[in-house]
Amino acid sequence: MMNNITKWLGRTFVAGAAALMVLSGAAFAQGAPAPDAAPPAATEAAPADAAAPAATATPAPPKIDSGDTAWMITSSALVLMMTIPGLALFYGGMVRKKNLLATLAQSFGATCIISVLWMIIGYSLAFTTNPSAGINNFIGSVNYLLLGPMGLTTTSMLAPTIPESVYMFFQMTFAIITPALIAGALADRMKFSAFMWFMSLWLLFVYCPIAHWVWGGGFLGQWEHSTMPAGRSSI
Questions:
Q1: Which is nearest to 6 in space by CA: 79, 92, 109?
Q2: What single DSSP character describes residue 153?
Q3: 3-class secondary structure for 157-179?
Q4: N or C: which end of the chain has fewer CB within 10 A?
């Protein structure tokens, strides 16, 4: 049995490492600076009074930074390892021998089902703005259903220096580990199929709305900004 567990954990780690290498390569390609354009041809000097003051120039919007992208990918990998294998082995060591594999499967199954649901609808509900201001206080929109509008160079206003795909992946790792922590209270007490249904419903009806309330433009985030003293910013 231990050999099977070792092989399963090894395959899971290799698959995760391969996925992170592919994602990091794509992210670095997105964040790579474009080659400098050729210098313009020399022209006649413009009158001094025609030059606009430098102080009035509009600051350039932030660009995708390869360093920020690499650090966010690393952080996402560390958070994901907190669930598999970290949380799976931690809970597996607290149950009876006959329930070891079932407990490991709960953490792995929660990772799989939540990853799929997060990319289908979870990210959209939590981190997008609803066209209706009243509804936006409580839940986001479905504009990012299946991550349709997310392109290779799009960014989120919450993280403008990294690709939005990396930001989505980072938030997904927390969406995975948060409900997976509940598995410790359900070990030896729930069927695997019922556990998967519970994880799915808990993500959509508890985690996504509360995440939107705080970080997605909901009423808790608005209340925090309205009560914050002048000169201070939220983290």
A1: 92
A2: S
A3: CCECCCCHHHHHHHHHHHHHHHH
A4: C
Please identify which residue in the block is written with the tokens 């990998």: 77
Q: How far apart are CA 204 and CA 206, in angstroms?
A: 6
End-to-end CA distance of the chain: 46
CA distance linking residue 180 with residue 195, whole number of Å: 10
Rounded CA separation 19/24 (Å): 9
Of 106, 116, 102, 100, the residue nearest 83 (C-alpha): 106
The candidate with the shortest Cα–Cα distance to 183, out of 91, 46, 53, is 91
- Answer yes or no: are the C-beta atoms of 163 and 30 closer than 8 Å: yes
Q: What is the pLDDT of residue 230?
A: 53
- Separation CA 172–CA 207 (nearest Å): 11
Residue with tokens 């003293």: 229
CA distance 113 to 68: 28
Integer Cα distance of 227 and 222 in angstroms: 9
Average pLDDT over residues 113-119: 96
Tokens 């509009």 belong to residue: 58
The whole-model pTM stands at: 0.71
β partners of residue 156:
159
Following DSSP, what letter does each residue of 190-222 receive, concatenated?
Answer: S-HHHHHHHHHHHIIIIIHHHHHHHHSS-HHHH
Confidence check: pLDDT of 88 > 60: yes
Top mean pLDDT of 49-53, 90-94, 230-234 is at 90-94
